[in-house]
Design goal:
The protein has 3 helices and no strands. The chain is mainly alpha-helical.
């Protein structure tokens, strides 16, 4: 009778061992899958942090450039207001009619300078649009 109990206990221990082995294998596969998912999420997190840092840097650059442009625009606006004030105080039409030789060369020279500046700016913009970006 004792050996029957030993056989039954041995069979039960064998069955428990097999169940434990397969359960262990199942959990080990689950753990490996979770490790891979964690590594992928850590990589995604790192990429997102790098992207956020780059976006913040770009925002700072844009803010600085915008501030510089605003200051330059204010300066140009002040110059324009000063020049317009000069024109308001003087009747150039009357002066041109009275002394055409005095005003005409100055106007022609200034017009040429403005057109030359526009042409140079246009060339610079044209070169910008045809130059491929470098990264």
């Amino acid at each position: 009778m004792g050996w029957k109990i030993a056989v039954v206990l041995f069979l039960l221990l064998g069955i428990l061992g097999v169940v434990a082995y397969f359960t262990f294998q199942k959990y080990e596969a689950t753990i490996e899958t979770q490790r891979r998912e964690l590594a992928a999420r850590e990589l995604a997190d790192k990429t997102q942090k790098e992207t956020i840092a780059q976006l913040q840097y770009n925002l700072e650059l844009q803010t600085t450039a915008l501030n510089d442009l605003t200051k330059a625009n204010q300066s140009i606006q002040e110059d324009m207001n000063r020049y317009l004030d000069i024109f308001k105080r003087h009747d150039l039409g009357k002066l041109a009619a009275a002394k055409p030789g005095l005003l005409e060369p100055k106007v022609n020279r200034a017009t040429k300078e403005v057109f030359d500046a526009i042409e140079e700016d246009s060339k610079a913009l044209s070169n910008l649009s045809t130059t491929p970006p470098t990264n």
